[in-house]
Each structure stands twice: as structure tokens, then as C-alpha cells.
Amino acid sequence: DVQLVESGGGSVQAGGSLRLSCVASGATQDIGCMGWFRQVPGLEREGIGSIDSDGDTTYADSVKGRFTISKDNAKNTLYLQMNSLKPEDTGIYYCAAGDQLRRGVCARPFGYWGQGTQVTVS
Length: 122
Fold this sequence. Notes:
The chain is an all-beta fold.
């Protein structure tokens, strides 16, 4: 199994920045892809983006140019740098991990999930 723990959430004014972290532990050698998702109460969970074992990233249109996903393999840590935050970015942000089908393509759904961290933009 893989365990994921997010951190770095908080409250920020519109236009500000936050960086979320997600530390993976356990069977990390089995991870092919990692991703970030967010959820607002009453709405479906939204995929923000992902990164595969080759370092290839994908992003939702709503965050392209503002958010950046990166990882530090030595630290088993996934990051989400969020800039130019908007009130509509408010939500609970989840880290996820799973298999990679091929370069640039992650298997869905992700098999492992963190507990989430709250981001509030006002």
C-alpha cells in the first residue's frame, strides 16, 4: 500500500500563492503517476493535473499557466505550486497516486488518496 499526506493548505487572498506538498510512504516503488484533485462541497471532484514517472505533466484548462506540478523523487514528495489564485480555486485539495499506462497517460482511477487539505481564496 501507499500512504499519502498533504500539507500546505490555508487561506490566501485572491492573486496570492500557495504551495501544497504531498509526501508518499509505503510501497512508493509501485507509483507510476501522481496527481492533484480538488473538491467543492456539492460538486464533483475535479482533476487539476498529474505527473508521470517520466516527469510529463498534464493540467486542467482551468489551472493552466497558474499551477505547476512537480515532484522530488528523493523525498517521495509531490508539489502543487499555485499562483494567481482565484476565489473559484477554493476547495479541498487531494493528492493521489496510481499506475502509469504509458508515457503521458495515467491509469484511472488513481488507487491511493490522501486525506486532503483545505485551500480558501477570498
